[in-house]
UniProtKB/TrEMBL annotation:
This is Universal stress protein. Belongs to the universal stress protein A family. Residues 8-136 form the UspA domain. It comes from the Bacteria. The lineage of its organism: Bacteria, Bacillati, Actinomycetota, Actinomycetes, Mycobacteriales.
Length: 265
C-alpha cells in the first residue's frame, strides 16, 4: 500500500489501454532497478453475495495475469509484483502514489472504471503525489512501448527536466514548444523574440543532455490546439500536473501524457 517500497505502479482494470500502460512502464522500472507493481482495485458494493465476490476476484486475477504476460513479453528483466486492493479506485491509487516513483494508467480504461463520473485518469494525474503517465493505445494495431517523440512546453524548469530525462530514457527526440497567443502570422518581431526566449529556456538542458536530439517551435493558440493538430501515435507530452486535467481527459485521448510537479523531482 502507500507505505511500501518505491516502485512504478500500474493501474490495471482489464482494458487494452491498461495493458499498454503496463508495457510502457517496463522501461521506467527497469531503468531504476525497482519493482513494477500491478494493482487492480475492486470497489466494494453494498450488497455483495459471496459468489459475486469470487467472480470479481477471478476477473481481477485474470486482468493482472494479462498485464503480467504483456510485461514478460517485452523480454526485459522487470521485477513484477501484483496485488488486488478493495476500495474506491481514485482513493486507492492516490494512496499508492505516496510511495510510487511513477504511476501509469491507460488513457481510457480507468475512465470506463469510473462509470461515467468524470475522468479517473485525469483526476489521478492532477492530484497524485508522484508523476503520472496516462498512456493511449494506438487503435488498429498492437500497442507498443515505444516513444517516438517527447514534446514539452518550455515554461517550467521541473517539467523540462522530466521531459529531457524521459527523452534520454526512451532514446527519443524532444520538441520544445512555446505558445505565442498575441503574435499574428505577420508579426515578425514578436515571433523572433519568442524564438529567442525559447532558445534561452532550453539552452541549459541541451547542454546537460547532449545525447538528446532537440528541435523547437513557437506555436499559436493553446497547447490543446497544438496537440489536436499534431497527434502522433507515439508522442508523449510532458506537462505540469496543475495544468493537465483537460489534456488527460477523454476528449484528448489521442495523446499520451506525463504529468509531474516540480515537487516530484
Amino acid at each position: 500500500m502507500g507505505d511500501s517500497a518505491p516502485s512504478v505502479v500500474v493501474g490495471v482494470d482489464g482494458s487494452k489501454a491498461a495493458v499498454a500502460a503496463a508495457r510502457w512502464a517496463v522501461d521506467e522500472a527497469v531503468s531504476r532497478d525497482i519493482p513494477l507493481r500491478l494493482i487492480y482495485v475492486i470497489e466494494p458494493s453494498e450488497r455483495q453475495a459471496a459468489g459475486d465476490r469470487e467472480g470479481r476476484l477471478a476477473t481481477a486475477r485474470s486482468a493482472l495475469q494479462d498485464a503480467r504476460r504483456a510485461v514478460e513479453g517485452t523480454g526485459q528483466p522487470a521485477k513484477v509484483e501484483a496485488e488486488i486492493l478493495w476500495g474506491k479506485p481514485l482513493a486507492s491509487m492516490m494512496e499508492e502514489s505516496r510511495s510510487a516513483v511513477m504511476m501509469c494508467v491507460g488513457s481510457i480504461g480507468l475512465n470506463h472504471a469510473a462509470h461515467g463520473v468524470g475522468s479517473l485518469s485525469a483526476s489521478l494525474a492532477a492530484s497524485a503525489l508522484c508523476p503520472v503517465a496516462v498512456i493511449r493505445r494506438p487503435s488498429g494495431r498492437r500497442a507498443a512501448a515505444r516513444v517516438g517523440r517527447v514534446t514539452v512546453q518550455a515554461d517550467n524548469t521541473g517539467v523540462l527536466r522530466q521531459a529531457f530525462e524521459e527523452a534520454r530514457l526512451r532514446q527519443a527526440p524532444l520538441r520544445a514548444i512555446a505558445v505565442a497567443r498575441s503574435a499574428g502570422p505577420d508579426d515578425v518581431e514578436a515571433k523572433r523574440a519568442a524564438h529567442a526566449l525559447l532558445r534561452r529556456r532550453i539552452a541549459r538542458w541541451t547542454r546537460q543532455y547532449p545525447d538528446v536530439p532537440v528541435d523547437s517551435a513557437v506555436v499559436r493558440g493553446t497547447v490543446d490546439d497544438y496537440l489536436a493538430a499534431n497527434q502522433e501515435p507515439d508522442q508523449l507530452f510532458v506537462t505540469d500536473a496543475r495544468a493537465c486535467y483537460d489534456l488527460c481527459g477523454a476528449h484528448n485521448a489521442g495523446n499520451s501524457i506525463l504529468a509531474t510537479r516540480s515537487s516530484n523531482l
